[in-house]
Specification:
Layout (H helix, E strand, L loop, with lengths): L6 H9 L7 H5 L8 E8 L7 E7 L11 E4 L19 H10 L7 E5 L6 H5 L2 H5 L3 H14 L11 H19 L9 E6 L1 H12 L6 E5 L14 H12 L7 E7 L8 H13 L7 E6 L6 H7 L1 H8 L3
Parallel strand pairs: 3-4, 3-5, 5-6, 6-7, 7-8
Antiparallel strand pairs: 1-2, 2-4
Helix pairs in contact: 9-10
Length: 316
């Protein structure tokens, strides 16, 4: 039986972006370096639990213009280091402000959907690869998720398919109706890190008609199991081989570092890269980058965020 991933690593995966903010923090006005943030408190869904959504409108936002939209996971970690669990942030506003100011990308809207706290892993574990695992492994993962949950919950459901419905069937229609967007897939992108990288990969494969581009930083190929004798990465590789979108109309970015959790990713990413080439992806529509010395943290992603943003927002 496969061992669960060691406690110190579990804490990084599970605690990463999970504790909910206090009501005082939710009510506060975010100060950002570029544009302005509009917050939807407790955006309701018929599929998953309600969650806050932060919408970054670009500097000079005008209803007379139309803007691409990036949907990002773990929305509480995007702009404000005091809003998350570890005092770090992605610096999305600073990065976009610099790129737009240098005319490297055009202005866009960023929609940051908060994670659901203790339900984060259930929301972000890709469901179809999970269902292909042997029953013993699925039961082990469910047991671990149940152990992490507060309260007397007995049923643990992998809810990635439902989570993608809040993005595609509820949140995106709301954004397109209330803001001036370029709503087609060529201008609708998805991005995240770690488990957020996994769900971004899953999103562009499950909804290629919605998302034309995806950025998956420090993609957590391990799931929540230890690196040894772990069947989960192979399930993702097989899933990609069967479900990758058309390279003629989609772009995908992967990356990884070499420290902390990221040290385990390279062998699995290399297998993913082989599948990408086999399926016709090339440097025009796919990148995988390795960052020596980079660890698994918002600070690390902030330092290189300009690279996937340029790749996603490039007109080429």
């Amino acid at each position: 039986m496969n061992k669960l991933i060691p406690l110190c690593i579990c804490l990084l995966i599970f605690s990463h972006c999970t504790p909910p903010t206090s009501s005082k923090e939710e009510a506060s006005v975010l100060e950002v370096a570029y544009g302005r943030v509009v917050r939807i408190d407790s955006f309701a869904s018929q599929y998953v639990s309600a969650r806050n959504v932060d919408i970054l409108l670009p500097e000079g936002y005008s209803p007379q213009k139309e803007y691409p939209v990036i949907y990002m996971h773990d929305g509480q970690m995007l702009y404000d280091s005091t809003n998350g669990w570890n005092g770090q942030e992605w610096g999305v506003d600073e990065t976009l402000g610099k790129l737009v100011g240098e005319k490297k990308v055009k202005p866009c809207i960023v929609v940051g959907a908060y994670n659901s706290g203790k339900g984060r892993l259930s929301d972000y574990i890709p469901a179809k690869p999970f269902e292909k695992l042997a029953s013993a492994f699925k039961d082990s993962i469910r047991h671990d998720l149940r152990r992490r949950k507060e309260g007397p919950s007995t049923d643990i459901v992998i809810k990635a398919d439902e989570y993608l419905k809040i993005l595609t069937q509820e949140l995106k229609p709301y954004i397109d109706q209330n803001y001036s967007t370029l709503s087609g897939k060529d201008h609708t992108f998805v991005s995240g890190s770690s488990m957020g990288g996994l769900i971004s990969m899953y999103a562009i494969c499950e909804y290629p008609e919605v998302f034309g581009r995806a950025a998956c930083l420090s993609t957590h190929w391990l799931g929540i199991m230890s690196p040894e004798e772990n069947p989960i990465p192979a399930s993702y590789v097989q899933y990609l081989a069967e479900h990758l979108p058309d390279p003629a109309t989609h772009k995908i970015y992967f990356d990884y570092g070499t420290e902390t959790l990221d040290q385990y990713y390279e062998p699995h990413q290399l297998k993913v890269d082989s599948v990408m080439r086999l399926k016709g992806f090339s440097p025009n529509n796919w990148q995988t980058q390795k960052f020596e010395g980079a660890n698994h943290s918002e600070n690390a992603w902030k330092a290189r965020l300009h690279i996937p943003f340029e790749f996603l927002l490039s007109e080429s």
